[in-house]
Each structure stands twice: as C-alpha cells, then as structure tokens.
Write a structure and sequence with these properties.
This protein is α/β, with parallel strands linked by helices. The chain is built from twelve helices and 15 strands. It comes from Blastopirellula marina.
C-alpha cells in the first residue's frame, strides 16, 4: 500500500509539474488600460497628493517604465494600436472618434486629413490571435472604436463584452450608467466597481483555461464623479499635483477597483501564472490634472500628451521593484503579450512594436526610434497638428501649419523648454528625414494647407 501510494504521489507530482509548466507557457493576461491617466497621476510616479496604494504595490512587484508612451495623444488611436499592434498612422485611425467641424478652429491654417474611427475587420486583433490559441477573452470597460455594434469587442475576438461601445466617456459613473453594452444592476453603484465585479466573475468562470482579460476603465475620464468617501480626503488640498478633489477620488477609485481584481488573482491561486500590464491611453487632460514637470497634456505632441504610466508584472520574467528608462510604446505591449502567450505571427504579418522581453534580461531593443502622428485638432482646439519622432535622447516635432520643427534633448530638458532646432541643424534634419520616411512608409494621412 505504501509503495502504491508513493507511486501515485510521484505521478501526481509529475502531472502537477507538467501542468505548472504548461501554465507558464500560456500565462493568463490581465491588461489594464486607464483612460486619460497622466504620467504624474500615481503616487509611485512621484505625486505626493494622490493615493494609489494598490497600483504602487504592483509597481514594487513588477517593473515600472518611466519613458513609456501612448501611441497617440488621444484615446481611440491608442486603443486601436494596442489591440492590433499597428501604429495609428498605418491604421488611419488618428483622431478621437469621428473628426469634424466641432474640432476645427475657424482660423486654422491647415485642414486635417480624413480619418477612420471604426476598427476595420480587415485587421487582426490581439483578442482574435489569443482566442485562436485557446484563450478565453473578456472585455470590460471603454472601447471607443465604432458606434455600430458590428465594430464592438465581441466582433473583434472577445467572448464577452461589458461596457465596450462607441462611447468616449460614460454619461455618468453611477448606475444607471446609460451605457448600451452594460445593463443597469444596482442604482448608485460606481462604474469602476461594477467593471471590477464583471472581470472577477469572468475569471472565476474561466479559471483552468488561459484567460485574456481587458479591463479598460472609463475612469479617470470626464465627467468628474467619484464616491464621496474618496473625494473627501482631497478637499482643500488643491495645488501642485492636484487641481480637482473629485479627480483625486477618481484616481483612488480606479486604484481600489484594480486592487480588487489583483486580489482575485491571488484568491484563485493564479497570480504567479498571470502577466499583468497597467497603462494609460494618453497623457492627462489639463482640465483635470497637473502634468508637471511635463509640458502640456492630452491632445498635444509634447510629453504631457504622450508619456504615460506603465507597470508590468510578469512572474519569473520581470524583476520586482525594477525601474526601466527605455522608451517604449503601446504597440510593444501587443508584441509582449503575444510573445508571452507563445503566439507567432504568419510570415506575411508584422507589428509596429517589439516584445519587451529583452529589456527584462538587460538587453536592448532593435529599433532606433519611436514615431507619433497626430495631424488633427483635439477637442480643446489648443494644439497644433503635427508628427513626432523620439530617437535616443532627442525628440523632434514637425508642425504642419508652418512646416517648422522643434528639437528637444529629453535627458536634459524633460519639460521641453529649450528648442535646439536652430543650434543642432544636422540632428534636426536627420530626424526630420527619418520621420518623413516613416510617414511615407505608413501612408499616413497628412493635413493640407488652406488658401
């Protein structure tokens, strides 16, 4: 009997070890993307006013990137880029929703190009690739890639969609939300808590199979609404780092909801088998937050519009508490997820991002530049249409209204105050040529001069 028991126990251990190995080969993936969260909107990013203990703890467990960029300074292009791995310029989705006269200043010197705002079915999404590889796929939150239901998440590879539609922001954060893809449940319930509940229920239901969970929160986007118990802490603290107490409450509500989902990974015993990525879709809106020391905010090609928080916890791969200064961009997250899941692209397919795995082994990425294209006027009409390139320490912006350029040394001038274009003409010309070449290669839509 003892011998039989030992043989059975040994077999069980081998089976368990094999199962663990298989789980490591196909980790669960939790992709959290917050809406409009600026680079300085977390305590771990250096904001002493805001409380974000759960996300701060995630940063201590994983790797925090200090030079992470959204694919665009507004939401829809970044969302399309992350879910496909392709640059907004290549997708021809470069504006936050349908562009139109409501965004165009009357005295504008250029006319923005036509742009799409619906995610074409000609593209292949991250969810579709993972689903084909055996993943259960769930989407919870903001989509903003098409008003028609035929463009919603379940038509792009997700098994479940709760919250995803054409809305760029919620009519309200309190139930009834009036979001067509999220039925009312409990009057007064806060939206971030509801989305966390739905993500948790999905994970409980699908545990045992590899899962891809997108928690793309509507927070911290306008309107300014937060639970009263969280807002109260920030009242009277307005100043550097906080311009609106309610916004502080929204940040903390987001932190609390994300923390609940992370706790569920622990309760299910799958935290060590789950790749967690936390980021934002663009820089902070200046009507809501303080992006300093970065210049400007959402809708601008300056750092305040593009640079975002990024935290990656990949058990067995990332180093706890590490801080990485390498410039990375949204499409890199797509490539990293596919790498983690062991999904290989067809030979005739490619992405505009690179897997970040080499960085976790103290190696370097292959590319030499990041590119950004925003040829539109944002909703606030306070920006200039342009394109940008970041190569090493230098960043060049090309403006379409007068064909001028600005050049900044981000290592010495993070706030982009000293334009070096005139003093470093060779660097400016080299980067401009490289940027124009990329725009041609992607067939990017360009503004036209108005007569």
């Amino acid at each position: 009997m003892k011998a039989t028991s030992l043989v059975f126990a040994s077999c069980f251990c081998l089976i368990a070890a094999a199962a663990a190995s298989q789980a490591a080969e196909k980790p669960n993936i939790l992709l959290v993307m917050v809406d409009d969260m600026g680079w300085m909107d977390l305590h771990c990013q250096g904001n002493e006013k805001l409380r974000s203990p759960r996300i701060d703890a995630l940063a201590k467990q994983g790797e925090r990137f200090t030079s992470a960029y959204a694919a665009a300074p507004v939401c829809s292009p970044t969302r399309a880029a992350l879910i496909t791995g392709l640059a907004p310029a290549r997708l021809h989705i470069t504006q936050h929703g349908a562009d139109g006269p409501q965004f165009w200043p009357k005295d504008r010197r250029v006319q923005p190009p036509a742009t799409g705002f619906e995610l074409s079915h000609a593209t292949t999404t991250l969810a579709e690739r993972l689903k084909a590889s055996g993943y259960a796929t769930g989407f919870f939150g903001k989509w903003h890639l098409g008003d028609d239901k035929k463009f919603w998440p379940t038509e792009h590879g997700f098994d479940v969609n709760l919250g995803g539609c054409g809305y760029g922001g919620p009519p309200t954060y309190f139930d009834p939300y009036r979001i067509p893809s999220l039925p009312p449940r409990k009057t007064g319930e806060y939206l971030s808590e509801r989305l966390a509940d739905e993500a948790i229920e999905f994970m409980r239901r699908e545990q045992g199979e590899p899962m891809f969970v997108c928690l793309w929160t509507y927070n911290v986007h306008y309107p300014f609404e937060a639970p009263a118990d969280l807002t109260a802490h920030y009242e009277g603290q307005e100043g550097p780092g906080l311009i609106n107490p309610i916004y502080g409450g929204q940040v903390e509500a987001t932190d609390r909801a994300v923390g609940r989902v992370l706790d569920e990974l622990d309760r299910l015993g799958i935290a060590d088998e789950t790749l967690v990525i936390f980021t934002s879709d663009n820089g902070g809106w200046l009507g809501a937050t303080d992006n300093r020391p970065l210049r400007e905010g959402k809708g601008h090609l300056y750092e305040g519009g593009l640079r975002v928080p990024l935290i990656i916890r990949w058990p067995g791969v990332t180093e706890a508490g590490a801080v990485n200064e390498t410039p990375v961009v949204s499409m890199d997250l797509t490539a990293t997820i596919l790498d983690a899941a062991g999904v290989r692209l067809p030979e005739d397919d490619s992405l505009d991002g690179e897997t970040l795995r080499p960085l976790f082994k103290d190696e370097t990425l292959q590319r030499d530049a990041l590119y950004f294209h925003y040829p539109h006027f944002a909703f606030h009409q306070d920006n200039r249409p342009g394109s940008s390139i970041r190569s090493g320490k230098y960043k060049l912006i090309l403006w379409y209204d007068d064909d001028s350029v600005e050049l900044y040394d981000l290592e010495q001038d993070l706030s982009e105050q000293e334009n070096l274009a005139a003093s470093l003409p060779e660097v400016s010309q080299k980067l401009k040529t490289q940027l124009v070449g990329w725009l041609e290669e992607t067939k990017a839509g360009l503004p036209e001069k108005r007569k």
